[in-house]
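ok, trying the design again with the full structure, not the truncated one.
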């Protein structure tokens, strides 16, 4: 900082900003209908994730088609769209260093029978198709999926 008489005084108060990473999740209609919102959110926060955006909402069929468009050619696409639009979901943006990878570990394998003990899907999923929770698979998809559900004003 420059002050009178052109004497340079260094700014000694430097703030160190912590590196962060974000991921996106949805608690799917089966988890919401079965009353698992609180327990799943507790698992997420107990694992060190900070919830930076959260909403209870319901996807329309058009929303579900758009969100899962990447799977349009797959045989399960129709069932997935029907399932994801049948009831409310909880959408959330989570923050933690290494968020995507750590959250994928926390949710567990898609098939709850193969999911590790202590994972969300092991505890709350009922089948491969109704597996309680979605988690982004990359930083890029986390940003896309977050923007799909939350405006910039809703992302803190």
């Amino acid at each position: 900082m420059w002050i009178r008489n052109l004497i340079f005084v260094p700014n000694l108060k430097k703030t160190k900003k912590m590196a962060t990473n974000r991921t996106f999740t949805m608690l799917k209609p089966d988890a919401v209908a079965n009353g698992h919102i609180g327990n799943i959110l507790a698992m997420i926060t107990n694992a060190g994730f900070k919830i930076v955006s959260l909403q209870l909402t319901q996807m329309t069929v058009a929303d579900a088609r758009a969100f899962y468009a990447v799977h349009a050619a797959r045989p399960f696409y129709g069932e997935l769209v029907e399932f994801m639009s049948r009831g409310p979901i909880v959408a959330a943006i989570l923050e933690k260093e290494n968020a995507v990878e750590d959250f994928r570990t926390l949710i567990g394998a898609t098939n709850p029978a193969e999911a590790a003990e202590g994972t969300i899907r092991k505890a709350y999923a009922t089948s491969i198709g109704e597996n309680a929770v979605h988690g982004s698979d990359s930083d890029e998809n986390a940003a896309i999926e977050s923007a799909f559900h939350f405006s910039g004003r809703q992302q803190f």
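Keeping the full-length input from now on. The longest strand covers residues 50-57.
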